[in-house]
Structure formats: structure tokens, C-alpha cells
Amino acid sequence: MHANSPMLGMSGARAVDRCDQLGGGRFSESAEHLFRPYLSRAHRAAVDQVADWMKDAGMTSRIDPSGSLIGRFEGSVAGAPALLIGSHLDSVRDAGRYDGPLGVMLGIECVDALRRQSRTLPFAIEVAAFGDEEGSRFPSAMLCSRAMAGLIDESSLEIDGLADALAEWRLDRRDFLAARRDPTEFVGYLEAHIEQGPVLESENLALGIVTAIAAQRRYEVTLRGIAGHAGTNSMGLRKDALTAAAEAILTIENIARAGAADLVATVGKIEALPGVANVVPGEARFSIDVRAGTVLVRDHAADEIVGRVSAIAAERGIACTITCLHDLAPSPCAAPMMRRLEQAVTAIGQPVRKLVSGAGHDAMALAALTPMAMLFLRCKDGISHNPAESVLAGDAELALSALLAFVEILTEDLHA
Description:
This protein is an alpha+beta fold and 416 residues long.
């Protein structure tokens, strides 16, 4: 199915436009920038709007016990297993408009194109708009896709404020695990997402095929020294938690720079307490995010980072607590799904470019439930998690063409 098919028209542009519509106003918790945290009023407004678009495309929809919106386009046999297409609706603070929602909108456009053709398939299509991928509200990411895949337990839900947030949506934390789905319900999972990196743009390519999602480990560090008056504490006797954190952060950067090309380490959040200009900080908290294409590279770096941060604190007489929040193995895409995606990209006249995703995605969790694949779209300057996030409507049209070609190839394979 080529991008200039009359079946498509401007559907790719409409997917981009709908992301833009969700980029502010009642769909954001902030009037100054886009911020749509999980289970917020802005998130609910987005769910309600996307549910309307699903209905227009010929789907039924429901909100599952975790707060994800699930749309379904029935196959030729009611209750048939589904191809799951999806991404997330939540965002980081001061976000771009396409990270997550574009994958949802392209899934809806895929269904709408089939509806307009009066097509029924030997499988259903479900479009999932996951509620929590970013972890921007609670200290745990991918809660919803992990719940669907059966990767969380009761202890994972002991998060301050989660029960109250669910209750505001008339959901019950005690039912959260019921979001789990059975593998027999699906034939696979396909996610379209902006690359969040510069490779495709640098090579003048619209689309890329993900081979694997990098291994991740995330920590929370708390350093405790002694708070005191800034004017009366001599430099040699201070137990300054913030300067200890500063040394630790630079050490983390140096370890990552000296490592393998695919190794990255980031401190994205830091807090100093009591946070007063004339008080030596008695406590500092910061995050560490370590990623690499393989577990071996990631773990070697992460272990070195934890050891050096602990040593820096000890050398300065600072108490140190390091808690591992996430330990996610690399997620290779399923070979049969990748093969179909390669055939689809080739069928629409695009070159096949394979690459590893350094960013995490809901597909990581769904890989434990069903065979998964990912399609990347280029984004301007490789920028994401930033208001400058930008995609081309033409690239979205090509991505939609690839999704539809994938559906045709999957149909042929299931009939074979």
C-alpha cells in the first residue's frame, strides 16, 4: 500500500494534527507548557477525546483497570486474537506533542483506513493508549503496559497517592492487576514512535526499524550530611551533601564518556535540602539513569557508578543510600514481526534502516506478552521531551502506509 493511495489521503497529516490538538488547553495541566501526567484531569480529557476519535474510526473502546484506553476493531470472527497497535498518552513536564500520542493516532488512522475500505480481517485490531509510560507522576514508569503484560504485583502498587488518583477516575487499586491480558488474545504488538534521536534525519530517512530496546537501570540516590549556617561553617569541617552530589554527578558523566559508544548515563533530577540560600545543604537527592545496548555493558557501568558514588560519599563523611528503581533487560524485537515490518517498508518504496532504541517504550513490557516490533519516524534534530519536538506530515503518511502494508502481510501469513 503506497503513500499516495486514495485510501489514505491526508490521514498522516490528520494524525499529526490530532497530536497538535492534544498539545495544550484542557489536555495539559499547565497553561505555560504541555504536561499530561498519568491519571490527571488533563489525561482524562485526552482519553475522552481519543475515545471519540476511536469511535469515529469504527472502534468500540473501554478504559482498563490501570487507566489505559483500549479501542477494538473486530475481525471477521468475533473475539479473534488481535494485532495490538499502541503507545502512550502521558507526557513529561514541558513536553513535545508527538512522543507517544503519534503512535496512538497512527493506530487509529490505520483502523479508519480499513473501515473506509469496508475491510474485515482474520484478526481484530486493538489500539492501546497507555496511561503511564513516562513515570512523570509516580516513581515508576510503564505501569500500564507492565500491568497488561503481567509484569507487576501488589507490591509494585504500594505507591503514595496512586490509590487516590485511581479513585478520582472511579478505578480501584485492588483491581489494577486485572489489566493483565492473556498471550492468546494477541497475534503481536506494533508501535510507531518518533526516533528521539538524530540517526534517521542525518541519513535523510523517514522511517527506521527497531531491532531492540536498550537495557536500562534507574537509581534514586540520597546523600545525608549536616545542614548548618553558611557563614559560620568553615569549609574544612563541612558535611555538604550538595557538593558531594556535584562530585558524584561529574564522576557519573566521566564513567559514561569513557565507556562503550552505546553507553549513556544521566542525572535528570536533583534536589537540595533544606533549599535555603544561607544554609549548607544537609541532604541531596538525585536520580541516575544508565542505559546500553547490552546487559553486560550497562551492568559494568552501573556497578562502577554505584561504587564510585558510595566511595565519594564515604570520603566526605556523608551517609549514602542508593535504591534501584528499575532494572529492565534489553528487549529484542521479535524476528517474525521485524521481517514483516521490513517487507512492509520495502513495499512502500522505502529503504530498510535498522537501529537500536536507546529510549524505553511500552514495547519493552509488551515483549513479555506477545511478539513485538517498532517502527521509528524521524524527528527534527533528534529532539524529544522538548517543546521543539517536530515531525513531518509526509513521514507520518509513510508510517501509516507501512502499518497498513504490515497488516496485509500479516493477513497473508495467517492465511498461508
